[in-house]
Each structure stands twice: as structure tokens, then as C-alpha cells.
Amino acid sequence: MLSHDAQLVNLHMSRTMANNICLLFHCEYDCPIRNQLYFVEFSHQNEGARVRKFYPPFCASMPEFNVVGSCNGLLCIADSLYSDAVYIYNPFASNYKQLPTSKHSQQGETILGFGFHPMINEYKVVKMIYQKNAFNRRRPPFGFSPLLYSQSEIQVFTLGSKTWRSIGKICYALEHRSSLEAPLVNGRLHWLTQPVSFDVRKIISFDLADEKFQELSIPDCAGSRHRNHALAVLGRSLALVVHCRNGDSEIWVMKEYNAKGPWLKEFKIGAYSPIFQNPHSERSLGLRPARVICLLKDGEVLIEYEGRTLVSYNPKSRNFKNLVFWRMPALFRTIAHTGSLNWIETPIEE
Question: What residues form the membrane-spanning segments (predicted)?
Fold first, then answer.
């Protein structure tokens, strides 16, 4: 039976799906109870709306998890603590499925991606498994993740099938945070590589139809290994966010998808010091740079700062506006979500 909050959420869904985006807040560090999901329907007309809490029905067996991705109303959620359990979950319909366990060493690190390809009408979960080796015992350079392995095993699960499939290996060292940032554009998932030695970062795509990897070009002036980069989706286009040393951010957009570009510098956002809802909290999520969440219908850019506040940026006026919702968690990671009450068309076989 659905909880009272879940019933209220379902009543709001038809209006939300027709007019507004949904924002999900994954609260990894919100004491006393960790790993909770919150929801709010967002538009400029309902600023200050109430944030509602979700309790995934499988959370008792998975106390700590990562939200891998959102696609067509479905969330991919993976265990981040004890095992490699992966769930596909519709928070508004309260439907979920646990995927079969894949066969790999528990000593490795994994990077995941989740998406749908309209040409083949299939949802897939991609798992890259980096096995620990002698190189990993050495201390990595300052500021680099220890996830610098020579190659990884690639496994793919197609929703509706029964087992994971191994499709080979790749030699790219992907950023560890890429497990939480794998934008889906044109049926392809995207990740950034680690900057190794004097190499610049690369953008790697994985086509969910032919299951092949490809390197994408990166803007020459955005390729410095000394800058902080991130990927995002703006509208339906792939975007590269470049955080500069002076605090400014540049957003490069690939409006016509092509492995060789072109990239257009769509936005330049000046340095901004947001007003935090909880200014006394010192436990921001690693003081990470601003995260570009999505492009709003009015052309403004939604940005998350340090996992503690949301801001909308108007590129025409260059004004910033703090967004506050009632009962918003103190620390969170924001996911732009398309609400749906439907389940996948090809259900997983039992």
C-alpha cells in the first residue's frame, strides 16, 4: 500500500508531467538517516513548494546507494556499500526490479551508466569494472582519484534479459565521479577521462545500440588539464562545463551531435557566492564546483552549489536567484527527473 506522501505525489503527477520538471534530491549525508530521496515539482510559479520524502522499498537491504541515472521516469540505483546490487525503480509508481548479480571480483571499483535507445527500444545498464592491481597500491598524484587502472571489463545488462553480458575491455581511466555523471544524449552515454600525465581530458561515448565506445572531440580552449570539467545535458544537447581558475564557468554545447563537434560556447557564468540555507554547515559535499543540472523552459540555467543550495541563472540579465523549497534537505545531490507512472514496456523476466 502506498504511503500518504506517495499517494499525494501520484495525485500531482499528471500536472507535473504536463507542465514542469521534477527535481529529486538524493541526501547521502543527511543525519540521522542517510540515503533518502526527496521530490519536488518545479516551476517558477511554485517556488517555496513542499519537498516530499520517498522511502525506496528496498532501502532496508541497501542502506547506502548511488543514483546512477534517470531516464523516462525510471531511476537506476546501485548499492554503494556492501554489494553490486542494482535496482530499476519508478518512485512515483512504486515499482522496482532488482537486476541479477554480475560475476566479477568484489575487489574492484565500478562505474555505471543507465539509459534508453529509441532506435532499438531498449533500456540498458552499463558496468565498467576496474580491478585493483599493483599500480593502484602507489599513491596517486595530488588531486587525482586512485581509480587509475590500466583497463576495465565492460558488462551490459538489457532490461528484459536474464543475465549480464561481458563485451570486452577498454583502456580509458574514467573519473570516479563519472559513475554519478553519465549524460544520455542520442542514445549514447558519456563520461570524462582522468587527466593522466600531460594528456588532456577526453570525452568517451558508449552507443547503447551497437555497444561501441567512441572518443568525442573537446574544445581546444577547454582542454587544459588544470581546469575542472563536467558533462551535462542542456535541452537535448550534450554540454561541457568548464570551471575556470578565476571562478567563472563556461558552458560549451554540441547542438548538432557529432563526434568531431562543433562545440559552441553558449554561456559564460561569472563567479558567484550563493547564500546557503544552512550557513553553519561545514559538511558540504567535498566543496565541489557548481553542478549544472539542466536548462529551464524560460532559458535559465539551474545550478547546484556545493550540494547545499540551488540557483537559477538568467543569461540575459546575468542575474542569479537562490531557490528555496519548504523542507528542503541541508545536503543533497540534485537529479532532474521526468515523472511517469508507467513501467518499462519490456518487463524483466522473473
Answer: none
Predicted confidence (pLDDT) per residue in 178-193, tens digit: 557 799 999 999 999 8
Neighbours of 342 (CB within 10 A): 12
Helix (H, G, I), strand (E, B) or coil at 141: coil
What contacts 103, CB < 8 A, 6 or more positions away? Answer: 164
- DSSP codes joined into one string, 188-229: EEEEEBP--TTPPP-EEEEETTT--EEEE---GGG--TTSEE
Which runs of E-coded beta strand occur in 21-149?
A: 21-27, 36-42, 52-54, 65-71, 74-79, 86-90, 95-98, 109-117, 122-130
E strand or H helix at 19:
helix 4-19
Q: Give the pLDDT confidence of 198-222 residue by residue, as tens digits.
A: 567 789 999 999 999 999 988 876 6
Higher pLDDT, 145 or 58: 58
Tell which residue, 92, 104, 98, has the closest CA to residue 6. 92
Contacts of 256 (CB under 8 A, 6+ apart): 262
Residue recorded with cell 541563472: 313
Residues in the chain: 350
